[in-house]
Amino acid sequence: MAYFSKKDVLEGESMFRRHFINSLSGYKSANLIGTISPDGVPNLSLISSVVHIGASPPMQGFIMRPLTVERQTYDYIKSSGVYTINHVHLDFIDKAHYASAKWDKDTSEFDTCQLGAEYLGDHKAPYVVESRIKLGMRYEDEYLIKQNGTIMIIGTIEHIYVDDAALQEDGNLDLSQVNDVSITGLETYYKVEKAAHYKFARVGQWPVDV
Description:
Number of domains: 1
Strand content: 25-35%
Oligomer: single chain
Strand order of the largest sheet: 3-2-6-9-10-5-4
Structural class: alpha+beta
Largest sheet: 7 strands, antiparallel
CATH topology: Pnp Oxidase, Chain A
């Protein structure tokens, strides 16, 4: 088994370190964050740090990298107060990955990445047409992580669009039915496949796959 100390990691080659440390947390969800600029230019950003915050009220968060350079997604969320979270699927991984390139603020990643933008209901931020699970979010708060300058963005889920194929009677989502993908490291994608489904764990009751 390979061993690395903190010193080994920090003094090693930088690209190896980035891939290695980003892979340690395991599989992460792949999502496109949709925002709109004050000038009406729709924007997309690929994010692999979306996390569940709570169910009542329904909230999710994600990590924004340090604001040492221009962060269009952050700026547009703060200026509009809204954004969208859109799942990435097998049939458009390449387009979603292309959205992670450093585009200038006058360029719409929807256009350059050949993805459709749609506006649903009264939500002002654009959704990704091709996504089969998408959330309309409202910005609530942010928390600076002082140790490295990253920011946790917290949002309330105001609108939910879910493909019928994924939605199960008990409220669970079978993400394999819509060909969701996950990310490890910075740029490696994996298919999602259900391995087991257990009932709520209780002391004295050994889990049985249902």
